[in-house]
Specification:
The protein has 33 helices and 28 strands. By secondary structure, the chain is of the alpha+beta class. Pfam families: Helicase_C_3, WYL.
Length: 822
């Protein structure tokens, strides 16, 4: 119990006990202290473990920490729930699962030496290592000669683990001789008729249960006529129903040669790989990283002026996905990855208007101000953690309908775990080693044998391709910056403040070391193009952002590859003129940015388009058209393509229309004219589609899957809280008549409460109190009173290991603690 020393002011200062001091064993391993009494339950086993062992359990099973259990008994209860035990089993590899199955086949309790004898083809030390690992995970408890699997594990492994039936010697008298003398099984079978041994061996390794009509009919040695009757008569098979027989464990094990589980695989399969130089891998991954950032930028720039509509059911229409893939020059799978990553990063969202469209968020503008390396790091972190699953796009849902990009139901909780599982296999390889796709998946199947769902398979098979597209890997090998990304602190592993900032993309921080590593291998953007006489420009590499936007404004991409080819046409030059560029601006920019002279055909194209551009002007009448050339006005009036505008001539050089200006401009351009807009003073107005943005949006929420790994600080605090809870539980008051014999604190009046508190303060003894908080929720606490003054109790709370102040009016009852050590 915590002791107090009076201070100079007449109060008391608690001397707190450290968590390590309250731990009984001092060893860091998971096995119970050999000097302590044999545990009778998992809770007792946990109480005999050291703080390091408890911390190792919480680190290996993060779901047990959220929230921290009240004490070790509550921790044992939570660890033995079905969902929690299933999560732990899902993390076991093939060999660990085989050892666990063998333990289940041995029954309760199991013996380590017997287990090692039943797995004769592997090193006994490997088996003992798995047993220790199962103890750490709290899937197994007890001493080496008294091992117990927790109930959910036994239930998960089925009725007949390892294909072995139950031991039946105690309940079936005829089976008892085989338990006393296992060699009797083989001696008996030497006299078996044809087909008897074969019938028995068919039930040895898969399932011990077989179907036999009339299995429960009386059969004697003399009356047996068939091979199955011969086996039943000699109790090598035992009936368990009218039409069902089973092979007793006492019979099966000798026939198996004592082997509990066959075909043990103690080590992961080797990985076939191709060796590449790390420098080549990093440069290739850097090129891919740069391309992915540019794809996201191109996507959001396009959608800021021509946003696609949000489907009524949510998501992106198939035609819009196809159009986007063509615009980005990628396949639909690549387009879906770009779209979903931008959405999960908070750079893209629905605008929330009546006719909703998908367009960039204000965070996109903040993202653009970052360096290319920082932009990539934010996208790569997003991809690692997001529950959005692009591989499902274009597939079929449970109802048979097509799954659309940006659909609401595209989140899957297991997706981040699957991505990390694949990439962890790449981390285990040497730099530059590029495994084959088949070998990588085979190794992962050894790591996670219980993960067999179609969704898991689809995600893990897509991860290598997605990682390559993002630039985390290059040529199939993990890059240096990809390796640093996986070992850095991700938002889910950071503090609450960092996680909150990460949900707002404009404030999200990225690891500086990762950004520096990727920046070192990003291709140097080019500041020039090569103009050619066939009205094309060749970019031999990635262009600077400003140059890329200018070239994209005045030319269309014709082909991509090692170099990008842009083509100039009258329509593309007119697009630049509409955006406010003049012929002089266009030619000056091309001359300054080209390593070759501006070809004469391109100069003619620009000047001719500029000469025609703005010759016909549109103003407000609702709209008017004016032109210095009466012939052009006459031609426009006679053009049948413009009949819908209902044009009326008001002068030789002026026409008016009842249609809006935007519609007039659009129809004139479709008819082959090159109009420009002007204001009321007659000055040319640059009219282009405004860039659209959504209101400020946080990142879309992720589905809650596996909880994040606890930090060292959280583990230390959790262990201290568990030890404090044990201390409090040790002082729980005994059952009292006033509380109905339930052990709950009795209700007490204010005067009785004050008297008990003063007595505990005088005796310097801990006391139980029932306390109602501001919400009316009542809790029970064991406290050591320090001061009682003005209706408030200052006391040391043993459960939280803190000095707290309690309002006396909210104390519902008091009781003395039990007289036993904590």
């Amino acid at each position: 119990m915590t002791t107090r020393r009076p201070d100079a002011a007449g109060g008391a200062t608690p001397r707190r006990r450290s968590a390590s001091a309250s731990a009984r064993p001092t060893a860091a391993g998971a096995a119970p202290d050999a000097a302590a009494p044999a545990p009778r339950s998992l809770a007792e086993d946990l109480r005999q473990r050291s703080d390091d062992s408890i911390a190792a359990l919480l680190a290996a099973r993060p779901d047990l920490v959220h929230p921290v259990p009240a004490d070790l008994g509550a921790l044992a209860t939570r660890a033995t729930t079905g969902p929690s035990a299933a999560r732990a089993l899902d993390r076991l590899d093939v060999f660990a699962l085989q050892v666990t199955t063998a333990l289940a086949a041995l029954g309760e309790p199991a013996d380590l030496r017997q287990l090692q004898e039943g797995l004769p083809d592997v090193d006994p030390a490997l088996v003992a290592g798995v047993v220790d690992r199962l103890r750490v995970l709290a899937l197994l408890w007890g001493r080496d000669h008294d091992l117990h699997l927790v109930r959910p594990v036994r239930e998960a492994l089925g009725t007949y683990p390892a294909g072995l039936g139950p031991a039946m010697a105690e309940g079936r008298r005829g089976v008892a001789p085989y338990a006393d003398d296992p060699a009797l099984v083989e001696r008996t079978l030497t006299e078996a008729p044809d087909g008897a041994r074969e019938a028995l061996e068919r039930l040895l390794w898969t399932s011990p249960v077989g179907r036999v009509e009339g299995a429960d009919r009386p059969v004697s040695v003399e009356s047996a006529r068939t091979p199955v009757e011969w086996l039943l008569a000699r109790h090598l098979l035992e009936p368990i129903a009218a039409d069902t027989v089973i092979v007793p464990r006492e019979v099966a094990l000798p026939l198996r040669g004592g082997v509990l589980v066959p075909d043990l695989v103690p080590h992961p399969p080797s990985v076939d790989h191709t060796d590449r130089t790390p420098n080549l891998v990093d440069r290739t991954a850097g090129q891919q990283a740069f391309s992915f950032v540019r794809l996201v930028e191109d996507l959001l720039e396009a959608w800021s002026t021509a946003p696609p509509a949000v489907l009524r059911s949510g998501g992106l229409a198939v035609r819009d996905l196809t159009r986007t893939a063509l615009g980005l020059d990628v396949d639909e799978e690549g387009a879906a990855l770009v779209i979903e990553t931008a959405y999960a990063a908070g750079l893209l969202a629905a605008d929330g208007e009546l006719d909703e469209v998908w367009c960039p968020t204000p965070a996109y503008d903040s993202w653009l101000t970052r360096s290319t390396a920082e932009r990539w790091t934010l996208l790569a972190q997003t991809w690692l953690l997001m529950t959005r699953t692009p591989v499902l796009v274009a597939g079929r849902d449970d109802g048979g309908g097509r799954v659309n990009a940006l659909a609401r139901d595209l989140d899957r909780a297991l997706t981040p775990e699957a991505r990390r599982a694949v990439l962890d296999e790449l981390v285990a390889l040497e730099p530059g080693q590029s495994p084959s796709h088949h070998a990588l998946l085979e190794r992962l199947r050894w790591r996670r044998p219980r993960r067999t769902s179609p969704l898991w398979q689809a995600v893990v098979e897509a991860v290598p391709e997605e990682a390559e597209r993002l630039g985390i890997t290059g040529l199939g090998s993990l890059s240096t910056h990809g390796r640093m990304l996986l070992t850095s602190t991700l938002p889910d592993e950071a503090s609450n403040e960092a996680r909150a900032a990460a949900r707002m993309p404009g404030r999200a921080s990225v690891p500086a070391e990762v950004a520096a590593a990727v920046d070192a291998v990003l291709p140097e953007p080019l500041d020039h193009v090569l103009l050619q006489a066939d009205l094309t420009a060749v970019a031999p590499g990635p262009l600077e952002g400003a140059l890329a936007r200018e070239i994209a404004l005045m030319a269309d991409v014709e082909s991509t590859g090692g170099a990008t080819v842009y083509r100039f046409t009258e329509a593309t030059i007119r697009r630049a003129l509409d955006a406010g560029r003049s012929a002089t601006d266009i030619l000056a920019m091309l001359s300054a940015r080209s390593r070759t002279p501006v070809p004469q055909p391109l100069e003619y194209l620009v000047n001719d388009a500029a000469r025609r551009h703005g010759a016909l002007r549109v103003g407000v009448a609702t709209a008017y058209l004016r032109c210095d050339d009466p012939a052009t006005v006459t031609a426009a009036l006679a053009d049948r393509k413009l009949a819908a505008l209902r044009l009326t001539r008001v002068a030789d050089t002026v026409i008016v229309s009842a249609s809006p200006i935007d519609l007039v401009l659009e129809r004139l351009r479709e008819a082959g004219y090159a109009p420009s807009a002007e204001n009321a003073e007659g000055a040319v107005v640059v009219r282009r589609r405004d860039s659209r943005r959504t209101p400020t949006r946080p990142r879309p929420p992720r589905l809650s899957g596996e909880p994040p790994a606890p930090t060292e600080a959280l583990l230390s605090a959790a262990v201290r809280a568990l030890r404090a809870g044990e201390t409090a539980a040790a002082h729980r008051p005994p059952a009292m008549p006033e509380s109905g014999g339930s052990g709950r604190l009795p209700r007490s009046t204010t005067s009785e409460t004050m008297a008990e508190l003063r007595g505990a303060l005088d005796r310097q003894k801990a006391i139980w109190i029932g306390y109602a908080d501001s919400t009316g929720t009542a809790t029970e606490r064991v406290v050591e009173p320090l001061r009682l003054d003005g209706g408030f109790l200052t006391a040391y709370d043993l459960r939280t290991a803190e000095v707290r102040t309690f309002t006396v009016a909210r104390i519902t009852g008091v009781a003395a603690v039990a007289d036993k050590a904590p």
